[in-house]
Amino acid sequence: MSGIQKVGIVGAGQMGSGIAHVCALSGIDVVLQDLALDKVEQGLATISGNMNRQATKGIIQEADIKPALARIAASDAYENMADCDLVIESATEDETIKRKILAQLAPVVKSSAILATNTSSISITRLAASTDRPEKFIGIHFMNPVPLMELVEVVRGIATDDETYEASRKFVADIGKQITVAEDFPAFIVNRILLPMINEAIYTLYEGVGSVESIDTAMKLGANHPMGPLQLADFIGLDTCLSVMQVLYDGLADTKYRPCPLLVKYVEAGWVGRKAGRGFYDYRGETPVPTR
Ligand SMILES: NC(=O)c1ccc[n+]([C@@H]2O[C@H](COP(=O)([O-])OP(=O)(O)OC[C@H]3O[C@@H](n4cnc5c(N)ncnc54)[C@H](O)[C@@H]3O)[C@@H](O)[C@H]2O)c1
Description:
With 292 residues, this protein is α/β, with parallel strands linked by helices. The protein has helices at 14-25, 37-56, 65-70, 95-105, 124-128, 162-174, 190-206, 212-222, 229-236, 238-252, 261-269, and strands spanning 6-10, 29-33, 72-75, 86-89, 114-117, 137-142, 151-156, 178-182, 281-282, 289-290.
């Protein structure tokens, strides 16, 4: 084992719940926190549903579900994370929110603990600077959906020490994931490549080159992608997609990363994808219907 036996997770949304799911099934105790306990309860319900689905498919044993769920404690105060060996911040992709969380969290968590972020794009070095332990701070970037996706990107900030890096690598291996190492530049590897592709798909829609369905069909059947780029954008969350494009645009100062105005409009409407019931598709009926 990596020596990491108890993990705190801040943010019980799509990603925080997924990380809790995987940790709990690996025998690690989890403290899961969000803005309010009802949000954590929603996360726990998602975890339970997803574990049951995995058991039906024979991916996990039915008997493992109850003990795994019992390992996840719901929290509404950072004090509950005081004895965690690792705390992973996985809240909304917004630097102001993340810096505030880290500044409040760090003084409460034991000094030997590693602090990590699941950010998709924001500088690890900058986030580390809002904690009391930049040398024990690291990016551990999971992929969505966490229980299914094998990869985790590990990103060191300028100050991250070797001990933190090695312990993080070991933790990722212990929960059954594969590592890729990225340098601390905007959006790292996966999203540096993926998000401009998604943004371009949205421009293709915006400029009328194709409809939602024709763009997704083109990339599924023409480029062998498992899902279309607009479907994928809805799955990631359009708010997260916009934040990542903004980080790329600001961080690399290159107009090729300009977020598509149509993406901005969808986010302004609150149509942020599957989690909101509506994005490039409307998910409120039995089958998803394109919104354009
Ligand atoms: N969606 C993806 O595909 C994906 C993939 C990898 C990484 N990420 C990253 O994971 C993080 C979370 O993304 P998500 O998709 O789970 O978003 P989400 O919108 O599903 O969940 C974010 C959660 O953070 C909570 N939150 C906001 N402020 C908080 C605070 N102060 N304290 C505690 N909780 C707070 C929100 O209430 C919400 O439940 C982001 O940094 C995102 O970039 C997302």
